[in-house]
Automatic annotation (TrEMBL), chains A, B:
GO molecular function ontology, one term from the record: DNA binding
Matching Pfam families: Aminotran_1_2 (PF00155), GntR (PF00392)
Family recorded in the similarity comment: In the C-terminal section; belongs to the class-I pyridoxal-phosphate-dependent aminotransferase family.
PROSITE patterns: HTH_GNTR
Transcription is among the record's keywords: yes
Alphabetized CDD domains for the sequence: AAT_like, WHTH_GntR
Species of provenance: Ruegeria intermedia
Cited Gene3D superfamilies: Type I PLP-dependent aspartate aminotransferase-like (Major domain), Winged helix-like DNA-binding domain superfamily/Winged helix DNA-binding domain
Residues covered by the HTH gntR-type domain: 16-84
Protein name: Transcriptional regulator, GntR family
Keyword check for DNA-binding: yes
C-alpha cells in the first residue's frame, strides 16, 4: 500500500531548509504511527511536483532517511518505510478524568504569586520599542558566534562538552574571565574564586540561598532590579529597601543589623547613578563595621562609550567581603544564560556545591562557544560596535528629550543602554504605557522597581538597545504627546 | 617598533585550526596589554617560518584581525596593532592581602559537606571503564548533532534563541516531547503540564523545594541515587529510606505521615529492579490513602533492548498525584543538561516560577538543537544504534560474569546500561575499587547509594555504556581476581 501524496504539506511557517522539512514530516509520520512498516513512499518526482520543490530536494531527504534506517530502497521500485524504523507508541494515552490532589495542601510553598514586570512577547512588532536588555540582531556578530559554536562542536572538543563534569566549569572560559575580563574591572581572582552561572539572576539567587535565610537581614536599593525583590522574598530573610540618591546607595542608611547588602555601584539599576569612589570606601567601611557581606551586581559595565567606567567595588575590597556578579546577557544575548560570580574561595565552594545540587553545571557547549568568542577577540570587537551604535542613539535620545521637554531622572555618566525618566507627578506610567502601546510605542513603567508600599507611579525607563536611531525622535515625540494628554 | 617573532609560540595542546590559534595569540597579546597600539607585527613570511606553518595560514589570521579592527595594514610595509584595537586593562590588579570575613558566621548554610560519589576526571584513560552514565563517543551521532546545532544557529532561529523569554520553553521541543516522547510512556500531557529542566537533577531539586520543607516528610528508596539524599537533606524535610526488594519499593513500608514518595519504578536505581504492574497500582493506592505525592524518576527507559518497557507509573495516575521526571542525559549526553518534568498544571506553574527565580530558563540554543535532533528522527536512530551496542555488551557481560562466578544482585529485565553486583560480605568495595584502579579498572562502590547508617559495603555497580565489548571479558576477569584476593 502506498502513502498518498496528499498527506504531505509544507507548513507556511516551516523552519529550516526544504529538505529538512520534508525529512521531518516523514520522520514524524513514522514516529506518530501514521505511516506503517512496508508502506511505500510517493516517488520523488510525484512528491516534488506536489510540494512544488525540486526533485533533488526530495531525493536528498529520502537518502538521509535511508541512512537513518527510517526507509529502505527496493531497487527501482522506490522507497518504503523500513522494518527497522522506530516503532510508534504502543500505549494509547488516556486523559486523566478528574484530579483529586489538594494543591493547597500539597504545595509546601508558592513561587508563582510574585509581582514581576512582564515584557511583551511581540516587542519586535512595535515600531518604537524602548525596551531594555534585549538583543539587537543588527549589532550582534552572528557569523562569528556561529563559527565559534561549530568549532566548539568539533571532534576535539566533543569529550569536554558532552561529559558530566558534576560541578566543574569550562577551564578555557574561566581562564579568559580571570585574565582578561576581571582585570578590566580592577579585580584579580584565581580560578577557585570564580564560578560560571546561568546568568546574573542565577548568581544573585545563589547568594540569597547561601548568605540569607530565616532570621537574616538584607538591605537592597530602592528602586532596584524587580526580580531581586522576588528572589529575596523567597529567601525568608527580612528585607529593607533604602532609597537611593544621585550617587546611589547611601551607606549611612544601612540598618545596624544588616547581614547582606545588595548594590549596583557602577550603574545603579534602574536610575543609572554611578557611586563616587569616596562613597564606595564609606560603603566598605560601613559593611566592615556591621560585619556584613556585599553583593555587587556589575551589570552592563561593558557599555562605557561616554567615559571609562570606575573600577568595580570588588577591586577595593581587602576583606573578602564583596561578592561580584557579572553577566554576558547584555553584551552577548540574554537567551545565552551565561554569567559569573567572583568571591572568596570559602564562598565559591558553597556556591559550587549548591549549583551542583540544583542543576550541576551550565551546559558545556555554551561555555566553550563563549570561550572561543571571547578569546578570538570577537567579543571586544562586538562591544566596540555596540558602543558606537549606542553612543549615536544616546545622542539622538538626548536631543529628542531636550526638544520635547521630557524630564530625565537618571542617565548613566559613562554610557549604558537606558535612561530613567520622570513624568509629572499625576501621571501613572503603567496607564501611560498602555496608551502608548496602541501607537506601537513600548516603554517600561517604573513602579515594579520600587519596594516602597507608597511607591511613586510616575517613573519610567527608556531602553535604547533595540530601537534604531531614526525611530527615536518620532518615538520620543509620541511619548511627550501622551504625557501632555494625561 | 616591531613585535619580536620570538614572543609567538603554538601551544602543544592548542585547540582549533592553526589559523584560529594564531589569531587567538595575537588577540590575547593585545587584550592583555603585551602588544601596544602602532606596534608592527612580524611579516607573514617570518611568522610562518618561525611557527612552521604555511604563509597563507598566517595571512588569513591577519586578515581576520584586520576585519575586526585589531590590526591595520599600511600598504606594503605590513600589519600594525590598530589604533581602534581594544584598550588593555587600566587598573593593575592588587592581590587582597588578608581576608577578614568570618565565614562560619557569614554562611547561613553549608552545601559543600555532602557525601557524594565522585567520578574520576580521567576515566577515559582507564583501560576498563565500567563507569555509569557517560557518553560513548563511538555511538553518538556527532555529525547530525552538529548539523542540528548549526541549523539552530541560523538567522531564522536567531531571535527565538537569543531573546529573553523569562520563563518560557522552546515550543518546538515541548511539542515533540508531548507528541512523541510521552506517548511512548503512555502519558498524555498538554504543554502547560510540561517543563524543560536542566537535566533530571534539576527536576528533582525543583520538586524538593516546592513539595518539601521543614516539617514535611519524604520517603525514598534504599539504595537510591546518591545525589537524591543530598538534595533532600538540603530541603529540611525528614527523610525515611525504605529498603527495596526484587520488585522495587514495597508500598506497605511507606510510613503513615509521608508527604512525598520518590521512586524509580521502571528501573530501580541502582538495583535495576522493575516494579510489576500490580505493585504500581498498590503504590498509587497507598499514596492516595496518605494523600501523598509521588515523584517518578523514569531514567533510561529508552535503553530497552531486551523487551518493551512497562508504561510509566504516571500513565496509571488518575489523581494528578504523580510528577514524572525524564532526561536526555543518558540517551544524548550528560553535558547537554536537558530534562523535563510532567505534572498537573498547578504544580508546573510553581515549578516554572521557581525555575525563573533560580535561572529563568534553560539556554535557548540547546533546546532548539535538541528539538531538531529529535524531530528529524536522529534521536530515534541513535537510540537504536545505542541499544544494539548495549545488547551486545550486555551479553558479553553476562557470559564473563557467569564464567568468573561473580554474583549479580540486579539486572534490568528490559535492558539498561548497568548491573548491580554483590561481592562476598567481607569485601569493602570502596577498597576493592582502589585496588582495581591500579590495574586500569574502574568500578563504582555501592555504599554511597545507601542511606542506612549500617549500610552494606559489599555492593558495586558495573556500567557498560562506555566500555567496548572486547575489553569486557578481561575487565571482569580482573575484578574476579581482585575479589578472590580480598
Amino acid at each position: 500500500m502506498g502513502i498518498s501524496v496528499d498527506t504531505f504539506f509544507l507548513k507556511p511557517d516551516g523552519q529550516g531548509t526544504l529538505q529538512a522539512q520534508i525529512q521531518q514530516m516523514i520522520a514524524e509520520g513514522i514516529l506518530s504511527g501514521r505511516f506503517h512498516v512496508g508502506e511505500k513512499l510517493p516517488s520523488s518526482r510525484k512528491l516534488a511536483a506536489h510540494l512544488g520543490v525540486s526533485r533533488i530536494t526530495v531525493t536528498l531527504a529520502y537518502t538521509e532517511l535511508l541512512a537513518n534506517d527510517y526507509l529502505t530502497a527496493r531497487g527501482r521500485s522506490g522507497y518504503y518505510v523500513s522494518e527497522n524504523a522506530p516503532v510508534p507508541p504502543k500505549y494509547t494515552p488516556v486523559r486523566r478524568s478528574t484530579e483529586t490532589v489538594d494543591w493547597d495542601r500539597a504545595l509546601a510553598r508558592r513561587f508563582s504569586d510574585g509581582d514581576v514586570l512582564t515584557k511583551p512577547q511581540d516587542w519586535r512588532d512595535y515600531r518604537y520599542p524602548f525596551i531594555y536588555g534585549q538583543p539587537d540582531r543588527t549589532l550582534f556578530d552572528h557569523a562569528n558566534w556561529r563559527l565559534c559554536a561549530v568549532r566548539a562542536l568539533g571532534h576535539k572538543d566533543f569529550d569536554s562538552l558532552t561529559g558530566d563534569y558534576v560541578d566543574q566549569d569550562d577551564p578555557l572560559l574561566v581562564e579568559f574571565i580571570a585574565r582578561h575580563t576581571l582585570p578590566r574591572r580592577g579585580i584579580a581572582a584565581r580560578p577557585e574564586e570564580i564560578l560560571i552561572t546561568l546568568g546574573a539572576q542565577n548568581a544573585l539567587w545563589l547568594t540569597s540561598r547561601i548568605l540569607l535565610g530565616h532570621g537574616r537581614k538584607a538591605a537592597i536599593e530602592d528602586p532596584s532590579y524587580y526580580a531581586l525583590h522576588e528572589l529575596l522574598r523567597c529567601s525568608d530573610a527580612t528585607m529593607t529597601a533604602l532609597r537611593v540618591d544621585q550617587d546611589g546607595l547611601p551607606p549611612d542608611a544601612i540598618p545596624d543589623d544588616t547581614d547582606v547588602i545588595y548594590t549596583t555601584p557602577s550603574h545603579q539599576c534602574p536610575t543609572t547613578a554611578t557611586m563616587p569612589v569616596a562613597r564606595r570606601h564609606d560603603l566598605l567601611e560601613r559593611a566592615r563595621a556591621l560585619d556584613a557581606m556585599i553583593v555587587e551586581d556589575d551589570y552592563e559595565f561593558e557599555m562605557a562609550f561616554l567615559g571609562a567606567p570606575s573600577p568595580a567595588l570588588k577591586s577595593l575590597d581587602r576583606d573578602g567581603r564583596v561578592i561580584y556578579v557579572g553577566s554576558f546577557s547584555k553584551s552577548l544575548f540574554p537567551g545565552l544564560r551565561l554569567g559569573y560570580m567572583v568571591g572568596s574561595e570559602a564562598f565559591i565552594r558553597e556556591a559550587r556545591a549548591l549549583r551542583s545540587l540544583v542543576f550541576r553545571h551550565p551546559p558545556g557547549h555554551i561555555q566553550r562557544t563563549a570561550a572561543y568568542f571571547l578569546s578570538l577577540g570577537h567579543y571586544d570587537a562586538q562591544i566596540r560596535r555596540m558602543s558606537k551604535a549606542l553612543l549615536q542613539r544616546r545622542q539622538t535620545m538626548e536631543e529628542a528629550i531636550e526638544r520635547h521637554g521630557l524630564t530625565v531622572a537618571g542617565r548613566g555618566v559613562f554610557g549604558g543602554s537606558s535612561m530613567w525618566m520622570r513624568a509629572p507627578d499625576h501621571v501613572d506610567t503603567a496607564e501611560l504605557a498602555r496608551q502608548l502601546q496602541k501607537q506601537g510605542v513600548h516603554i517600561e513603567p517604573g513602579a515594579p522597581f520600587f519596594s516602597d508600599p507608597h511607591r511613586p507611579r510616575n517613573f519610567y525607563r527608556l531602553g535604547y538597545s533595540s530601537i534604531s536611531s531614526d525611530r527615536i525622535p518620532d518615538g520620543i515625540a509620541r511619548i511627550a504627546e501622551a504625557i501632555q494628554a494625561s
